[in-house]
């Protein structure tokens, strides 16, 4: 028996329509279904009712499937003013939520930098101020804070990937003294000193370790953005600062592993660290294998297609894939992105990749600075200004002194050591993660967590000013004695 495909498809379409919700709803109004038999009930009266209902209102269903409020056809007799008000209300209701958040974030990214340049200030400070105003502690114009923060975290991933693009393995090996010597010493000394201060304040041993490790971290986003803006990534000052940040990214792993163990009384500490070491080995080995055998053939295949969309897709898949791999195994997601950049720096596509990824990185990193402003609690600052100011200045001063002293110990000159100390004086973005995790396990109270998040955010806001001061201080310290005397005579 031969089948007529056209008739079959038409029949299936008709059946699908008859089974659809609108049609079923219509059938229920026309028929009463009982024991599988359809009985016609008042078909003419029902038909008249439906016609009257259609005349009174209709449902506007926009693209995307969401159903808007019924639009009355009796509005034709209303005044023009009432119609305008109604239209504005409808538009406001339609734009509320994700659409408004998206437009506000894009406008902030587009206009912040031009306005800050007109005012002669750092765009980072502009993003912070706007984050305070638009965030949950300000006017609450951003409704979906969680999604915004997730997008901002991806911005840091792209930023570290771009930094990795600028470094090959030879350069990275040449920085081992800055990474493990300078960076390791800075982290350990700062963590111990902060833990001692926390013990003097009567905090528990678990809280001392979390606060010490969290405050020993600095912000990769703030520091690297300032270094890039001033073209100092390849200077001794830039390399030393970057080396410390790389070590801190590695130090995040044991800190996050230890925190849940501390909440349970410290049992299984050695087992947990061993597990973390195994996971780190798996992640790094996997990345090395991918980089050696798969990455170049993958990009060769995509590049031969001569498609910009395919090339950008390959970049995004590589960055996010490496990031998810390390994060899923308990490492920092930025570490995976950085290593992906280092691997691709060895290929002939490094400049093309850097060109394509720049717009994504720029927008999303700006979004990160914006979300840092969400953590600044204005009510807390106004209610306890002395406490907040003392903690902020204490963190910045302590970290500056320790980092500068360690830099001097490792052979940096006074000017460079001072600059390294000042630019690393803020708290880091991973402190947010560590303190929130500690709060979830009961190590830190809600009040303590809110206080620390606010203070860490404020130390980030001080970074551009401290970096500018560090540059002037370094110039003064490194100036020849003859020039110093000349400067003193002019002042006299």
UniProtKB/TrEMBL annotation:
Pfam families: Na_H_Exchanger. GO terms for cellular component: membrane. Residues 1-25 form the signal peptide. Keywords: Membrane, Signal, Transmembrane, Transmembrane helix. It comes from the Eukaryota. It is a multi-pass membrane protein. It is found in: Membrane. One of its GO terms (biological process) is proton transmembrane transport. Residues 108-466 form the Cation/H+ exchanger transmembrane domain. GO terms for molecular function: antiporter activity. The chain crosses the membrane at residues 124-142, 179-202, 209-227, 242-264, 276-295, 357-376, 388-412. This is Glutathione-regulated potassium-efflux system protein.
